[in-house]
Specification:
Layout lengths: L1 H20 L17 H11 L5 H16 L7 E6 L9 E5 L4 E6 L27 E11 L2 E8 L14 E4 L5 H5 L11 E2 L1 H11 L4 E5 L3 H6 L4
Parallel strand pairs: 1-8, 6-7
Antiparallel strand pairs: 1-2, 2-3, 4-5, 4-8, 5-6
Helix pairs in contact: 2-3
Length: 230
C-alpha cells in the first residue's frame, strides 16, 4: 500500500514538473472575453498616433487581438505590435492601451541572428534556429535571468510560434538595441528574442505582462492564409 501511494505521488510530481518547466504548459481555465467594440474606430484613432505603423498591419493586429479575446486572453486590453517587414533601424515595436485608445510606446526591437541582417526575411518555429517567430503570442511570467528582467512568451499559433516557450523566446533588454547602434546602419541581433533597449525594457514588460497579446507581423503568405487569428 505504501509503495502504491509512493508511485502515485511520484507520477503526480513528474507531471507537475512537466507542467511547470515544459514549453507546452497545461493552459489555465479561461473565460471568453468580449471583443473590442467598433474595432475600425480603434484602428483609425490609433493610426493617427502611430504614424509610422502601416494601418493595414494595425487592422490585422486588432483582428487577431479580438480572436485572442474570444479565447480568454488579455483582461488588461493592451496590444503589442511588431512589424518585422521594417528594418531593425526603424522603430517597429508599438504598445497600445486599447481601453484608452492610446499609444504607450514606440521603440526599436531586434530580430533573430539567422532571420536576416538589417531587414529580416526568414522566420522559424524550430529549436536552435536563432530565428524570430511570427504570429500571435500571449505574454507569460516575468523572471530575472542572464539578460536581467525578462518576460516569457507563449506562441498561440501551431506550426508558426507554438514552440516559443520551449525555445525561450522572451522579451528582454540588450545593449545592442539603441539609437546610437541604429545609426551605424544595423542593430545587433538576438537568438530569436524581441530584444529591446535596456532603458525601456522594465516599464514595457510591466505594461504588457500578464496575458496580453503580441502580434508579430511579416507578409508571409503561408501564415496569412493559415492563421486562425486572421
Amino acid at each position: 500500500m505504501k509503495r502504491s501511494r509512493f508511485s502515485v505521488f511520484f507520477v503526480l510530481f513528474l507531471l507537475l514538473c512537466a507542467g511547470c518547466c515544459g514549453a507546452n504548459r497545461s493552459p489555465r481555465f479561461r473565460t471568453s472575453l468580449p471583443p473590442l467594440p467598433q474595432p475600425e474606430v480603434a484602428v483609425r484613432v490609433l493610426s493617427k498616433q502611430a504614424h509610422n505603423l502601416n494601418p493595414e498591419v494595425l487592422k490585422l493586429a486588432v483582428t487577431a487581438y479580438n480572436k485572442a479575446r474570444l479565447r480568454g486572453y488579455d483582461e488588461k486590453q493592451v496590444l503589442t505590435v511588431i512589424d518585422y517587414s521594417k528594418p531593425s533601424t526603424e522603430k517597429r515595436f508599438w504598445v497600445f492601451d486599447l481601453k484608452q485608445q492610446k499609444l504607450l510606446f514606440n521603440e526599436l526591437v531586434a530580430h533573430g541572428r539567422n532571420s536576416g541582417e538589417v531587414k529580416p526575411t526568414s522566420f522559424s518555429n524550430q529549436l536552435n534556429s536563432l530565428k524570430s517567430s511570427i504570429g500571435v503570442f500571449a505574454t507569460a511570467e516575468t523572471y530575472s535571468g542572464s539578460h536581467g528582467y525578462s518576460l516569457r512568451l507563449l506562441g498561440l499559433e501551431p506550426g508558426f510560434n507554438d514552440k516559443a516557450y520551449e525555445r525561450a523566446l522572451v522579451v528582454h533588454g540588450a545593449w545592442y538595441v539603441n539609437g546610437a547602434q541604429a545609426q551605424t546602419g544595423r542593430l545587433g541581433r538576438s537568438w530569436g528574442c524581441p530584444a529591446l533597449n535596456p532603458k525601456v525594457v522594465k516599464p514595457i514588460i510591466d505594461t504588457i505582462s500578464d496575458d496580453t497579446v503580441i502580434f508579430a507581423y511579416y507578409p508571409d503568405k503561408q501564415w496569412l492564409n493559415r492563421s486562425d487569428f486572421l
